[in-house]
Input
Amino acid sequence: IARGAQMYVENEHHQLSSGTAASSFRSFQNNYLLVYLLAVSSDWLQGPYVYALYSDYGYSKSMIGILFIAGFGSSAVFGTFVASIADKYGRRSNVIVFAVTYSLSCITKHFPNFWILMSGRILGGIATSILFSAFESWLIYEHVHRQFDSSWLSETFAKAQFGNGIVAIVSGQVAGVAANSFGKVAPFDLSLLVLIVTGVIVALTWTENYGDENQSVSGGFSHAWRNMLADKRILLVGCTQSAFEGSMYTFVFMWTPALQGASATEIPHGMIFSSFMVSIMIGSSLFTLLISRMRIEIFLRNFFLAATCAFVFTVFSKSAMGIYLGFLMFEVICGVYFPAMGTLRSRYVPEETRSAIMNFFRIPLNAIVVAMLAIDLSTTVVFTICAALMLLAVIGMQLLSMFPSPDEKPLDDQKPSTDQITA
Output
């Protein structure tokens, strides 16, 4: 039902443009979505079996925790440097590097040696940084360069998130069949095949684009840092992203013990995960309906406040069903968040250092997740911290909403008032 409403809004938008423009855009959009969804499917295929494979190799919970921390730490330490390379040497090339590094990470899963597995986690962390920066940077540049309607970019983000939910469900089922038939390393081999296909499609169909190719890598790194500090809007977007995604990634690790602890019987993990993905799909459809009616900063602030309430409810609820409903609400908000934040980044983050700045945003959230993994906290304390992070996101989005909308005035001409700067 939600997707039907979303399609109706999209068709209304496209009827306002010429047939040639809409057709050209649709071809471009379908190519990007194919590549992006293949890339995220390679990630979803691995997700359910990383812990299980390490456990089969005989590693303890503490040793597995170290491997997971290495992955997030790698993303925080190396991600921004790799992103600066993308801005200088090309986003298309960086996406191919993603396919290669993640493929090597899959290959390491065949070896039970701890240090080989550790190298795989480091490679996986680098690949994840590219997945969440170079793809989006390439899309935004090409969308603007090809002079497509600016409102259609939000549609692409919404479809990518909707498709991500479908891909997650299908990938989980396929990975389960592969693991049951050929062992727990089989999902990683499937992921390897998908990554090879992804790299080939990108090499054959994508054009190259850059941030500032005349800048050195270290210079681009410094330029990105200066850009971020010089513009309060960029800082607010980054702080909001770090707060929301820090709580989101923490939620990913904690929803199972929270629900299992409140349930007298074994919870149906697969059904719960699938319902989370459907909730994300509903959220992405809600975004399409809201964006033409309200400023993104306003409805995101309201959804962040709802997410804060959902986590507070989870902290005090003793019922498994009550906790589950709170989690479903948060997943719907995640579905709204990703296309909305992608659209905000396209408006506020400068093109020449886009990939590097996007990975600067990921450093705090990776630090939050590493801290949560390293410290043994109760689910009550963890979700209290998540509620506090969501409240920070509310404040960040409220402050951002006090600046003029980029749609109201050219981005470079926007100057906040004295009251806004003081706030």
About this structure: The chain has 17 helices and no strands. Confidence is low (pLDDT under 50) at residues 408-423. The two ends are 41 Å apart (CA to CA).
